[in-house]
Design brief:
The protein has 24 helices and 6 strands. The chain is mostly helical. α6 runs parallel beside α8, α7 packs across α9 and α15 packs antiparallel against α16.
């Protein structure tokens, strides 16, 4: 009884520690991805339909999660509280996935390692309510269900739950398909052929529930075609664009030269423990085998799109944590008495070292400074003065338009988008032809939004096609003809410049990067 109370107390302390590491993120402004999800969620709350009424290439589960979060609070960052709760639940399922035969320290290590890995302040990985943080929970439930099915006398409820979670994961982030297939193989591991067939059919049937339910929902609402075309087929175009030579080389240099050193900094003790756990994987160590399959397939999913945003790597955190816990169990169970005695100290060091290494971001830096260190030159605070000006000089019924990928401006300004495209990258990165951007320009001319925000950020425009260049030029001509320059916000590395909107007139300098221009309709 005493040991159970100590275990519960330790888990509670880990949950509190994880919340402390995520606390700084609650004050940071909404990112562009979060702006997309928030816009779709608000649209659905007003009776609209994602995809049909607002273009988006992300699967729909995150829209419903955001909608649920906004049902409790309309604070723009409310979904980050949902992300925290999701991470807590992931920690619980990781603990339940560890074998009861492991030492208490090793069992506690799985949620503890995830508590430190997942909020790591590397770009936008550690504080946003992105799809990956909810994907972690779905895959942790799937892993727990698969593991429970191995020893259960009646494994079918466990396999059904695993399949339901796998289907939910696919509707959260399709790159988890590799892990879903990996878990399918694990459900059948070491069983008779007849049992394997039954297990596979049940798992796959349960996996189909979430996709089928959402497909039925969009079909009944008249948006099934938009859902399939945007969330699935156009994602293949995204992969095709990013897989070309120059883009792939650029991403490779970014991964090796910038991102990997950030992931190694402070976190290497956890990776070292994971290597020990993976080395121990074998026929008589099914949990380590599960961790190995989960981690390998997660890494395949991360690389599937050939684009390496930091938050993409979050989906590997639960598997890495489980493998690292196996490594700690291996150290504690070794014949080396020193390793046995120091296992709890090794766990504490592996947890505290990365927190201490980045203590400035976690506990010391102001939100303005943290935003710059994590995401410069991506605009975060720059959205606030532009949105405040729009809100003050327009009516709630007026529409606005953002050329670029900064949809959070719609949320902060509390104004609707003038067209279906809340970000312009589908028209600049991979349009299917000239007619795509021409139709967008016709829609803009009919809508005549009160304000247009033009982003000079290369990472916001994402122009990788000749039609994207034509769209950009057509937009500039439209602005020069129908709009006047009202002001600009420079994306500066200095925190003091974050909230400055310079009111201007005349013509913009289109060659300037790291600048957001605000245009107002003439007359």
């Amino acid at each position: 009884m005493k040991s159970k109370l100590l275990t519960v107390a330790a888990l509670a302390a880990m949950l509190a520690g994880h919340a402390a590491l995520r606390w700084h993120g609650l004050a940071l402004p909404m990112t562009c991805d979060e702006g997309e999800y928030a816009y779709e969620a608000r649209l659905m709350m007003q009776g609209g339909l994602a995809y049909r009424d607002a273009y988006n290439q992300k699967p729909p589960a995150v829209f419903f999660i955001y909608r649920l979060a906004y049902g409790f609070s309309l604070w723009p960052n409310a979904p980050r509280v949902a992300a925290l709760i999701s991470s807590w639940a992931t920690m619980a399922f990781l603990f339940w996935t560890t074998p009861a035969s492991w030492s208490p320290w090793a069992r506690l290590a799985a949620p503890a390692f995830f508590a430190v890995l997942s909020p790591a302040p590397i770009g936008d990985m550690g504080f946003t309510a992105n799809t990956e943080v909810f994907l972690c929970l779905a895959m942790a439930i799937c892993a727990w269900g698969v593991k429970k099915s191995w020893a259960a006398r009646a494994p079918w409820p466990c396999l059904g739950l695993a399949g339901l979670a796998a289907g939910g994961a696919l509707m959260t982030k399709p790159t988890c398909a590799w892990s879903v297939l990996g878990f399918l193989a694990l459900t059948c591991w070491g069983k008779a052929l007849r049992w394997k067939a039954k297990a596979a059919v049940l798992y796959l049937a349960a996996t189909a529930v979430a996709p089928a339910t959402l497909a039925a929902y969009f079909w009944l609402r008249g948006g099934l075609g938009d859902f399939l075309e945007q969330a699935f087929w156009r994602n293949l175009d995204y992969v095709r664009v990013m897989a070309n030579g120059p883009a792939l080389a650029l991403q490779g240099r970014w991964l090796i030269g910038t991102l990997l050193p950030q992931f190694l900094r402070g976190l290497w003790p956890i990776y070292l423990s994971a290597l020990v756990g993976l080395y121990a994987a074998g026929p008589r160590r099914p949990e380590e085998r599960l961790a190995a399959v989960w981690l390998g397939t997660s890494l395949l999913g991360i690389g599937a799109g050939f684009y390496f945003f930091p938050h993409y790597f979050l989906q590997a955190a639960p598997a890495m944590a489980l493998a690292a816990a196996g490594g700690l169990q291996e150290a504690g169970a070794s014949k080396n008495s020193l390793l046995q005695r120091t296992a709890p100290l090794l766990l504490a060091a592996a947890l505290l070292y990365p927190v201490w290494d980045r203590r400035d971001i976690y506990f010391q830096a102001s939100p303005q400074v943290a935003a710059r260190r994590l995401l410069y030159p991506n605009p975060l605070y720059e959205s606030y003065p532009i949105a405040a000006y729009i809100r003050k000089h327009s009516r709630p019924t007026d529409s606005i338009y953002v050329f670029g990928s900064e949809p959070q401006i719609y949320i902060h300004s509390q104004r609707r988008a003038a067209t279906r495209h809340i970000t312009s990258y589908p028209l600049t990165l991979f349009p299917r032809g000239e007619r795509d951007y021409l139709q967008e320009m016709r829609d803009l001319e009919r809508a005549r939004p009160k304000f247009i925000v033009y982003s000079g950020q290369p990472s916001s425009n994402l122009i990788f096609s000749p039609w994207g260049e034509m769209f950009q030029q057509a937009m500039r001509e439209f602005l020069s003809r129908e709009y006047r320059l009202a002001g600009e916000v420079e994306v500066s590395p200095e925190p003091s410049a974050f909230t400055t909107l310079r009111l201007l007139s005349g013509r913009p300098d289109w060659s300037r990067e790291n600048t957001l221009y605000l245009f107002q309709l003439r007359g």
